[in-house]
Specification:
Thrombin, subunit H; Pdz3 Domain; 24 strands; 3 domains; globular
Length: 410
Amino acid sequence: MKLSVLICFLAGAMGGVFVIALSQQWLDQSALAQQSFFNQTQQLADPALGTPRPLENRRQRAFAQPIIQRPRLSDQAPAAARQFSPEEQTNISVYEKCQRSVVNIDTKTIVNVRWLGAQEKEGSGSGWVLDKQGHIVTNYHVVQNSDIVNVTMGEGESFPAEVIGVDPRNDIAVLKVSIDPSFLFPATLGESESLRVGQKIFAIGNPFGLNRTMTTGIISSLDRSLDSKSGQQIRNVIQIDAALNQGNSGGPLLDSDGRLIGMNTAIATLNGGNSGVGFSVPARTIKRVVPQLIQFGKFRSPWLGVDYFWKSDRGIGIAKVVPGGPASNAGLKGLKAERQVIVLGNQRVVVPKWIKESADVVVSIDGRPVDSLDDLQIVVEEKNPGDNVELEVLREGQVLRVTVQLGEER
């Protein structure tokens, strides 16, 4: 019995040694195989050996692929800043450059209503900063007949304002606020003489009280005439298609460089909303009117001293000169009248007969041809009272040059 146990023990021990030997041999062979496979893979990937050959089986392909270690979220680089298109960059640049120049204007007017007594009527609009002295420019109709005017700056600070000058004809008004100049960011004035139809424009204002809202569009037309609320015509108006709504009045019209080329003043609409047809007073008119409003409180409009004109084949004829006016003092002549008797039934009636041959006909002003009254008025309105203009007139078949010193419109 003991002998059997001993034999079994020795057999088991020898079996264990045999298993261990076989295991070690298998591990050695596996290591050699892996080392050979690694060397083969290195050779396949060596560019000096030509195009790599495909591996022989899927297991080799699996072993050959390098292990990819994915970066942790904390190790990833931050997302790149958003890139804006050139058009977006222009829009952003204009807004960031100009938005602090735009102000909100709130008005209150005390009106007496029958049976109700005194009532407050509120209004609002837009404006823009002219200079560091506190001058604010807006439309006349924004502040017309207002008793209280407040200006709210870009950061939300509100200040009382005084209306120091108005020009109803061109729908322009100048306000004055007494505040620290650090609150004031003047707009950069551009020019409107070289504008082109199709040019991109920007409008910033406060439609429906939404402060500093920007809309974009193009110039739709130039040299429009617009009837102001005073009943007079504003000339050389810019037509635009940028969205304008209630509250935009008085806000700046800007070009792609952020320069002020006009002031938004009206829209053409059937229901009070935006129709894509807006109008702006040009910078040329603003530059001419605003200095006078600051200095005199009104626009001293130049005056030729002629009450009526009539259309001629060669230009415009002078119908009537005002006695003592600039045209009369320069020797210009209007129509002469002769007495003419006509018979109406049993009555004889004396009526005037106008003799056109006696009147001067204006054919040019300062060297510019005159074919209509607008041609004449455009040149006159660019002047100031006291300036001289040279008229070329046709008198009794002869061309004469007459210098007229303009007066102030009465």
